[in-house]
Structure formats: structure tokens, C-alpha cells
Amino acid sequence: MKNLTIEKAYAFLENNSLKDNDQLMKHSINVAIVAERIADELGLNGKKAYVLGLIHDIGKKHETKVEMRHILDGYNFLYNLGYENEARVCLTHSFYDKKLVKKILYNKGAGFTRDEIRFIISYINKREFDMYDKIVQLADNMGGTNGIMTVERKRMEIILKEGISDVTEVSLRGIFNIQNEIELKLNHSVYKAFPEIIDNINKTLIKDVIKM
Ligand SMILES: [Fe+2]
User: Fold this and answer.
1) CB 54, CB 9: distance < 8 Å
2) Which of 73, 45, 56 is nearest to 13 (CA)?
3) CA of 116 to the centre of ligand 1 (A)
4) 185 CA distance to ligand 1 centroid (A)?
5) Were 110 and a residue from 68, 88, 119, 122 both cysteine, which residue would form a disulfide, CB within 3.0 to 4.6 Å?
6) d(Cα 33, Cα 198) in Å, to the nearest integer?
7) Which domain range does residue 151 map to?
8) CATH number, domain at 42?
């Protein structure tokens, strides 16, 4: 099994349409920064977490209209190149709770075939999420396009943009459970490692976050 280097991960981002998608590029880099710092704080491999954060949305290069397809497209892209470990976070990063798997996959408009759904369900059910999966899940909820933010604010923005569905509560409880698990290991708030969040909040007006 190969390990993806930071240089190669950036090359993947540069060589696909992510480079034309400034927002997604900024999001990916901020997720990488958050993932690295949390992993370092936990005494894990920060460089590995950085790479995983950087490539978690790599499947979005193939994306047309279907939002959820990127998890499988990203997985296949990296797996076929021999990056099995990195491919894994493409599939795991959206499922904060295993209860979400079927809800998300069978959601009308998710655009998966029956075989694809069967594959993803068995892949996720066979595995316990490890700390790197959880770090990327949390980092995905803190790395915005305009910097690093609290999970609470980032989720609120998403709710106000996309509305509330039957997966919203499970999803929110799932991500806050993961934050809680990480904070119990850290013995302090995860935000303590991110003083820039205060600056971001100080320089942002509420009307810039929420359309009034
Ligand atoms: Fe993401």
C-alpha cells in the first residue's frame, strides 16, 4: 500500500478542476490545517492528517450535479492509484454516525446505483472509524472557505442555506459526539488550539454569515 505525500496530494488538487474552484481549494486547505493541528495535539501523525484533510473532497473534481457522488468518485480515484488509506476518508468523511449511511445513500437525488449503495454500506459497516476518520470529519466542519470556524457556526450556515431535513439532527448529534470524543482525549476544548477562530469571529459581521 502506498502513502500519499503532501506534494503528490497538492498535485492531485492542482491537476483537476479543483484548481478552478477557488472555494473548494480554500476549504480543502483549511480542513488540512485543522486536521493536522488536531492530530498533533492528540500525539498522532499530523502530516498524515494534513494529507487526508487535503484530499477528502478530491472526488468533487468529477462532480456534476450530484453532491454525494463525490465520496465514491474520490474513493475510486485514489484506490485505483493504490492509495487505499487515503481513499478511505473519501468514503468515511460524511458519515458522522453509522445511522446516517442508509439515510444519505438512499436519499432521492444521491445518484448511486444499487450496487454502489451495497458496496458503500458494506465498506462502512465492516470498519470502525479510526481517529483519523474522526479528525477529518471534525476538520471538515471547521475548515471554511474564509478560514477556520467553530462547528456550531459552520453547521448553522449550512442549515440556513440548505434547510432542515430528516438527517439534520442525526448529523448534528453525530458530529458533536465526535467533537466530544476528541475533546475528552484532549482534556480541553478543541477550539483552544485555534486562536484564529476568535479573529475570524471578530472581523465578521453576522450579516456576512447569515443572509438577513
Ligand atoms: Fe469537505
Assistant:
1) yes
2) 56
3) 21
4) 24
5) 68
6) 16
7) 6-209
8) 1.10.3210
The verdict on residue 26 lying in a domain is yes
Dist. CA 140 → ligand 1 center (Å): 5
Whether residue 190 lies inside any domain: the answer is yes
Q: Tell me the CA–centroid distance for residue 57 and ligand 1, in Å.
A: 5
Q: Give a yes or no: residue 1 inside a domain.
A: no
Number of domains in the chain: 1
- Within 8 A by CB and 6+ apart from 104, the residues are 68, 94, 95, 110, 167
How many angstroms does the Cα of residue 142 sit away from the middle of ligand 1? 10
Residue 187 placed within a domain: yes
- Is pTM beyond 0.90? Reply is yes
Successive 10-residue mean pLDDT values, the chain, 212 residues = 93 75 90 98 98 94 66 95 96 91 81 92 94 98 94 92 89 96 98 95 85 76
Answer positive or negative: Cα dihedral of 89, 95, 98, 101.
negative
